[in-house]
Design goal:
The structure is a single chain. Strand 9 and strand 10 form a beta hairpin. This protein has one domain. Strands 5, 6, 9, 10, 11, 12 and 17 form a seven-stranded mixed β-sheet that branches. Strands 1, 4, 13, 14, 15 and 16 form a six-stranded mixed β-sheet that branches. Strands 2-3 form a two-stranded antiparallel ribbon. Helices cover 28% and strands 23% of the residues. It is α+β, with helices and mostly antiparallel strands. The protein has ten helices and 17 strands.
């Protein structure tokens, strides 16, 4: 077979089209699978502006018919600006020597291309999943951790817009000397309470909960204690036991190794010092990846070409985008959980002692 760039381009276009690349990148983890249906593809410019679902017009209230409505605040028209989309690129290098040794067998050449491509896609999947669950740094995209926080996000500081924050549940950090701080107990009751409080106060319901494997197993064990073993009809020796998925108040709970986790540090004075595990409550109508319609999950437009010499050819896969949120309060985040806490020591968290409580309920 002729070993031309046109051959490689034709193979890539036919067997690894954009939709197939996307499907394979997102099937590597439960988290990537869950967010895939909510990806929004647009022709992105150098900046991404998102109108916010936030605020009350400052001059609003009861007026006489003849009165004019004042326009004293810009809050109702505020936009978050996320800057240029972050660009992830993963190279795929094909060594022509490998192809030359097998060029008499078209199936073997196709197998070589297939393995190289699968390796590139697996690497891209791992890199993307980590970036979407890690606080933004450098050229990386805004992530779910950035959206589900209470710091500056989308160019808007919390100090300027106090409710531009997610619903935060965390330990009551002590200011005593030494501080006396206990973790949020990893109980199903606390997760249920978080879901109920969040919906009552913010008027929104999350549709996905993501946490660490240790926390997921902690919830699993609590459910497992309450379950009876299901068996087939009497007279058989077959026992059916176990489950690998569950929901709390109708919301699926999944685990991902990339969700932040550290051992909880008791008696800490602040969030950073306390560490612990986290739970992310995500409303996917309000927070979602926004990606470039034609350049994400796609090969470079130039196709395959030389690299250094004629014995190697190169192509790249791309992902351009950010995680965008237009209503942070529609999501919640739990900090400072300790999955190693003994079940006999579980307590219900006291929302009134939390630092963000007065702001969230105002």
């Amino acid at each position: 077979m002729a070993l031309t760039y046109a051959t490689y381009d034709a193979w890539t276009t036919q067997f690894w089209a954009q939709r197939k690349v996307q499907d394979n990148i997102h099937r590597s983890s439960a988290f990537l699978k869950a967010i895939e249906p909510h990806i929004r593809k647009e022709m992105l410019s150098k900046t991404i502006d998102v109108p916010l679902r936030y605020a009350r017009p400052g001059g609003g209230g009861w007026y006489n018919v003849a009165d004019q409505l004042s326009n004293t605040t810009g809050e109702i028209g505020t936009k978050a600006r996320f800057g240029a989309p972050a660009k992830l690129q993963k190279p795929i290098l094909l060594n022509n020597d490998d192809v030359e040794l097998n060029k008499g067998n078209a199936i073997q050449v196709a197998d070589i291309l297939e393995e190289y491509t699968k390796g590139c896609i697996e690497d891209m999947s791992e890199t993307l999943a980590l970036a979407l669950l890690t606080a933004q740094a450098g050229a990386a995209p805004y992530s779910y951790l950035d959206a589900l926080g209470d710091g500056t996000y989308g160019g808007i500081a919390v100090a300027d817009m106090p409710k531009w924050r997610s619903f935060i549940i965390e330990p009551a950090y002590s200011s005593a000397t030494p501080p006396v701080t206990a973790p949020i107990s990893p109980s199903l009751k606390n997760l249920e309470k978080a879901l109920i409080l969040h919906e009552l106060i913010c008027g929104r319901k999350v549709d996905l909960i993501v946490t660490t494997p240790a926390m997921w197993m902690c919830y699993y064990d609590q459910i497992n204690l309450k379950l009876n073993i299901n068996t087939t009809p009497t007279g058989t020796m077959l026992v059916k036991y176990g489950f690998n998925a569950f929901e709390v108040l109708g919301v699926p709970v999944i685990a991902d190794t990339r969700v932040y986790s550290e051992a909880f540090v008791a008696d800490s004075a602040n969030r950073a010092a306390a560490c612990g595990h986290q739970v992310l409550g995500i409303n996917q109508e309000t927070v979602y990846p926004i990606v470039h319609a034609t350049r994400s999950y796609a090969w470079r437009k130039k196709g395959w070409s030389d690299l250094d010499d004629f014995d190697k050819v190169l192509n790249r896969l791309y992902w351009w985008g950010h995680v965008i949120c237009n209503e942070r309060r529609a999501n919640f985040r739990m900090f400072g959980l300790d999955p190693t806490q003994a079940a006999g020591s579980y307590t219900q968290f006291d929302e009134a002692t939390m630092s963000n409580w007065a702001i969230l309920t105002a």
